[in-house]
Amino acid sequence: MIKRLFILGLIFLAAVSLCACQQPKKAGPESRRYQSRMAKEEKRDKMTNHITLKLKNQTISLELEDNQATRTLVDKLSQGDIKISLSDYGGFEKVGDLPFSLPTSDTQQTAKASDVMLYQGDKLVIFYGSNSWSYTKLGHISGYSGKELQQILGQGKVTLSLSLKD
């Protein structure tokens, strides 16, 4: 009987020892890729809640909405600055063609002065007045009235540079 208990005890100790020596499981490549992608997205989201608009000698910050259009725009800007030629339209906005299309999530809304909208997926619109239409909101320029923004934008064509840099 003592011999059996001794053998059982040895088996138990051997099993515990073998389990303790087992290497911890490492995350597989799938989970490492997922974690890396999530870390990059989190870093991008923290760093890019705004972009810089450069116009003549003015630098303006655009506070971005959180949507697929702005995430795609930020991805495009990570490859370099984007220049757009803006023109007056309707006495309440400047509009310019983007060199690419962005995803849309258009809703009927009233744009107000300092709102920046996406129209038809490939046009950037900066409002210095208001208008009701179906847009995807890209963001808002804080700290400027409609009149101030209209003065900064000026009359006629103007070149706007979009950038991730301040």
Structure overview:
This protein is of the alpha+beta class and 166 residues long. It has a single domain, classed as Cyclophilin, CATH 2.40.100. Helices cover 34% and strands 35% of the residues. The chain has 4 helices and 9 strands. The chain has an 8-stranded antiparallel β-barrel. Strand 6 and strand 7 form a beta hairpin. The longest helix has 20 residues. The radius of gyration is 28 Å and the shape is rod-shaped. The N and C termini lie far apart (81 Å).
Write a compact overview of the structure shown.
34% of the residues lie in helices and 35% in strands.
How large is the count of helical segments? 4
The CATH architecture can be given as: Beta Barrel
How large is the share of residues in beta strands?
A: 25-35%
Which spans have pLDDT < 50 for at least 5 consecutive residues? none
CATH class: Mainly Beta
CATH-defined fold name: Cyclophilin
The strand line-up of the biggest sheet is 1-2-8-6-7-4-3-9
Distance between the termini: 81 Å
> What level of helicity do the residues show?
25-40%
The chain-level mean pLDDT equals 87
Element pattern in H and E: HHEEHEEEEEEHE
Number of spatially distinct domains: 1
Domain Cyclophilin-like: 54-162
Protein name: Lipoprotein
Pfam families: Cyclophil_like2
InterPro entries: Cyclophilin-like, Cyclophilin-like_dom_sf
